[in-house]
């Protein structure tokens, strides 16, 4: 590596470091008083990893038991421990492990887009490339997907740079890094298949086998097979466990009848949250260059790919089901083909990036800096909700990390329940079981991606009458099932009943309380709202300035 190349690498690395530092500044300033995204994060993924690490089960045998959610669940019910970010939880406090994970994702995203921008336009100005990288890296990447989406630009650079040359050490290191820091089941497989299609297309069009790309794909696949060893164990070795996913379906209700516009804007489903500004910029850029007959090369290819992905996902959402007449393929219901929409942000920002790199006008770089500011201050959850609650940027109050997990309240609850608190079987009403599991307790309910079908039936027997007739709750519990919660029709699927909200008591619960107590052995009910029914006896209420919850405790009569 020449001195110039070495200085360039250092400069880009430093730029990514500073951008990532900007993204995580709320963690450094506020500590556990920072506001962190709850859905699919604090209520699930974060606590899964923390719970595994606290019990020394990150790298445990797939069939070993993990206490907490649903009382005990097999190790293979949770994400792999052979993952770069998961291993952070074994070496540091879980809060800081999460903050470091977010920092690294942004840093890697920056470097990835900088590399890719050199392929988008080989003679692009370095300042423009850095600005484009900063825009990409300051988008909101869902942490539990690792670098699956944030580093797609790096993969694009690898596959286009090495298609006609031998693989070197740098390429192998980059690919191994991606393989062990991305998440196969949530996103990675859909990215892998995209590059698999590219490899086939290039080999056919060039009339030669792109062996370097084939080796990339094979090495990448090997990383994923190693990482997901526990699922392979469940599928090929474990023969007694029947997963709730055998009755699982994506292609109903929430995932039904999406349209191309919603596919572009549903950031939480595409894994990246970004402003409407960017699709609008792409649209007018395409219109402008199309009128000038300059829509060729990279913009045309990526625009066509974007249209293809949008059309494919729309057709899947509108018409697809794994049920083929009388032939039912239950295991394949877990395969969500709509996740090919994870390609949309990369394709969108590749087209946008090309225009940004090519266009020259007064004030362009100021606009790019403003876009980075919007990404951070408006769309980054920690910036928006930690500092902006009193402003127009945030229309409602959210809990801080400290408030959400309410450790002070749980210390008081444990003292109230007595020395045997850890052996009690809890259930929850309108508060997430993850909060109790975080605090070392055991719950009969939980948000978990792979658990015994038998347990779902048991919980379903308790709540069947209560959710009957509610189309959403029936679909969510019986057909999706990842939220094995004790639902109620008064506040359906509302697990954000924070103490600063107004609410009335629950006056009726059509649960099978006898089955709940005698068969499931429930000891205590924790609720974020008061419950006024004869089947439950009120024991105490706990609230604390550092808690998001008023926690009402009941026993079953």
UniProtKB/TrEMBL annotation:
Keyword Transmembrane helix: yes
Pfam families noted in UniProt: DUF6044
Xref: InterPro entries: DUF6044
Parts of the chain that traverse the membrane: 9-30, 95-118, 130-159, 171-198, 210-227, 272-289, 301-320, 340-357, 366-383
The organism's place on the tree of life at top rank: Bacteria
Keywords in alphabetical order: Membrane, Transmembrane, Transmembrane helix
Name of the protein this chain belongs to: Putative membrane protein YkoS
High-level lineage: Bacteria, Pseudomonadati, Bacteroidota, Cytophagia, Cytophagales
Gene giving rise to this polypeptide: ykoS
């Amino acid at each position: 590596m020449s001195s110039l190349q070495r200085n360039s690498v250092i400069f880009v690395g430093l730029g990514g470091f500073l951008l990532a530092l900007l993204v995580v500044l709320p963690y450094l300033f506020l500590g556990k008083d920072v506001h962190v995204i709850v859905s699919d994060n604090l209520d699930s993924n974060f606590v899964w990893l923390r719970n595994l690490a606290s019990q020394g089960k990150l790298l445990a045998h797939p069939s070993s038991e993990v206490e907490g959610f649903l009382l005990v669940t097999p190790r293979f019910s949770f994400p792999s421990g052979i993952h770069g970010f998961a291993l952070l939880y074994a070496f540091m406090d879980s809060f800081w492990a999460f903050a470091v994970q977010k920092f690294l994702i942004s840093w890697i995203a920056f470097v990835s887009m900088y590399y890719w921008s050199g392929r988008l336009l080989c003679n692009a100005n370095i300042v423009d490339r850095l600005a484009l990288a900063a825009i990409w890296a300051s988008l909101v990447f869902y942490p539990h997907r690792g670098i699956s989406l944030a580093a797609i630009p790096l993969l694009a650079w690898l596959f286009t740079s090495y298609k006609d040359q031998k693989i070197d050490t740098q390429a192998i290191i980059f690919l191994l890094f991606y393989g062990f820091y991305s998440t196969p089941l949530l996103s990675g497989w859909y990215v892998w298949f995209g590059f698999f299609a590219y490899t086939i297309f290039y080999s056919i069009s060039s009339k030669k086998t792109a062996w370097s790309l084939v080796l990339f794909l094979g090495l990448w696949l090997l990383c994923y097979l190693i990482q997901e060893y526990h699922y392979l164990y469940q599928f090929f070795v474990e023969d007694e466990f029947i997963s709730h996913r055998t009755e699982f379906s994506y292609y109903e209700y929430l995932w039904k009848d999406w349209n191309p516009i919603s596919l572009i804007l549903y950031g939480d489903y595409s894994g990246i949250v970004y402003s409407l500004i960017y699709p609008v910029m792409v649209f007018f850029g395409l219109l402008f260059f199309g009128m000038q007959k300059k829509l060729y090369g990279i913009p045309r290819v990526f625009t066509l790919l974007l249209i293809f992905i949008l059309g494919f996902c729309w057709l899947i959402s509108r018409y697809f089901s794994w049920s083929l007449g009388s032939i039912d393929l239950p295991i394949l219901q877990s395969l969500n083909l709509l996740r090919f929409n994870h390609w949309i942000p990369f394709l969108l920002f590749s087209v946008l990036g090309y225009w940004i790199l090519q266009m020259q006008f007064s004030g362009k770089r100021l606009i790019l800096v403003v876009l980075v500011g919007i990404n951070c201050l408006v769309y980054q959850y920690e910036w928006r909700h930690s500092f902006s609650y009193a402003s127009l940027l945030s229309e409602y109050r959210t809990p801080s990390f400290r408030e959400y997990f309410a450790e002070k309240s749980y210390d008081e609850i444990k003292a109230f329940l007595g020395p045997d608190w850890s052996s009690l079987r809890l259930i929850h009403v309108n508060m997430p079981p993850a909060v109790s599991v975080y605090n070392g307790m055991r719950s009969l309910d939980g948000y978990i991606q792979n658990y015994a079908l038998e347990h779902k039936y048991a919980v379903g027997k308790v709540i069947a009458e209560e959710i009957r007739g509610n189309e959403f709750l029936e679909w969510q519990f019986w057909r999706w099932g990842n939220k094995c919660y004790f639902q109620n029709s008064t506040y359906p699927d509302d697990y954000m009943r924070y103490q600063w909200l107004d609410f009335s008591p629950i006056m009726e619960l059509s649960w099978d309380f006898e089955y709940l107590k005698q068969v499931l052995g429930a000891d205590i009910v924790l609720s974020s709202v008061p419950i006024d029914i004869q089947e439950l006896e009120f024991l105490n209420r706990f609230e604390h300035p550092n808690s998001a919850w008023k926690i009402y405790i009941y026993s079953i009569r």
